[in-house]
From TrEMBL:
Origin species: Streptomyces cellostaticus
UniProt lineage: Bacteria, Bacillati, Actinomycetota, Actinomycetes, Kitasatosporales
A GO molecular function held by the record: ATP hydrolysis activity
Entry's Gene Ontology cellular component terms: ATP-binding cassette (ABC) transporter complex, substrate-binding subunit-containing
Name assigned to this protein: ABC transporter
Shown stretch of the complete protein: 1 to 231 of 357
Keywords of this entry: ATP-binding, Nucleotide-binding, Transport
Chain ranges of the ABC transporter domain: 4-231
Length: 231
């Protein structure tokens, strides 16, 4: 069974006095368990809207979203076990890194949280945040902040992980290191993941398959080799 399936997914933004925007226009996609899909496409093609609908941060206009075979399109975000690391999905400034990570677990049902401090320590170790667990977001570099976002998504052991430009704020050297770390995390934890990126190298090194979006639909879908070698 597919870990994540999008069926004829659609989103039309309507606001008074402005023309409607068909941001996503009938998107079909199916991800195998543990697969990492790279989602590419020009700005405005509907990538963020798609991720927000999967996460439950945006209502769908039509179609369905299935996680592990069950429809979640009508469920609120808290009732979907989706981990998100979005650029504008801010960390909570008054909370320390450890508290921000523990906050990621609050989205889980109480009985399924387990030992919070052990999980925080484990995930911090995995993404290299152990030394800054007591710091507040304002004191972190942008690379560290991105790691906290990633760790906060991972700590929930999500059914699906959504990453929107997870390396965008890093310089070239950090990007290299973090990309390798992401690859290791993906190998060890095997989350079903959609990764939005503009970076061809990132897509090539991390993605099992690549979907290229244009004007709200998927225009091309294939292995990185097929996508980048096609004329
Ligand atoms: P991408 O992530 O690929 O840049 P988006 O999903 O952000 O694309 O946007 C897709 C289209 O929907 C764009 O035309 C954008 O302007 C529009 N859009 C995105 N969010 C909103 C919104 N909240 N209200 C109205 N239009 C929106
Ligand atoms: P992204 O590519 O990350 O979506 P954008 O600049 O397109 O970045 O969007 C940033 C925010 O602005 C998003 O939350 C989106 O919902 C909102 N937004 C984008 N386009 C529009 C629009 N045309 N009208 C209203 N809100 C929009």
């Amino acid at each position: 069974m597919a870990a994540l399936e999008l069926r004829e997914l659609r989103k039309t933004y309507r606001s008074r006095g402005r023309p409607a925007v068909d941001a996503v226009r009938g998107l079909d996609l199916s991800l195998e368990p543990g697969e990492l899909l790279g989602l590419l496409g020009p700005s405005g093609c509907g990538k963020s809207t798609t991720l927000r609908m999967i996460a439950g941060l945006e209502a769908v206009t039509g179609g369905d979203i299935l996680v592990g075979g069950a429809s979640v399109a009508g469920r609120p975000a808290q009732q979907r076990n989706i981990g998100v690391a979005f650029e504008n999905y801010a960390l909570y400034p008054p909370l320390t890194v450890a508290e921000n990570l523990a906050f990621g677990l609050k989205a889980r049902p109480r009985g399924r949280r387990g030992d919070v401090s052990r999980k925080v320590a484990e995930i911090a170790e995995r993404v290299g945040l152990t030394d800054v667990l007591g710091a507040r977001p304002a004191g972190l570099s942008s690379g560290q902040k991105q790691r906290v976002s990633l760790a906060r998504a991972l700590i929930r052991e999500p059914d699906v992980l959504l990453l929107d430009e997870p390396l965008s704020h890093l310089d070239a050297a950090q990007r290299d290191t973090t990309r390798r770390e992401l690859k290791r995390i993906q190998r060890d934890l095997g989350h079903t993941t959609i990764l939005v990126t503009h970076d061809q190298e990132e897509a090539l090194s991390l993605a099992d398959r690549i979907a290229v979006m244009k004007d709200g639909v998927i225009q091309q879908l294939g292995t990185p080799y097929e996508i980048y070698d096609s004329p």
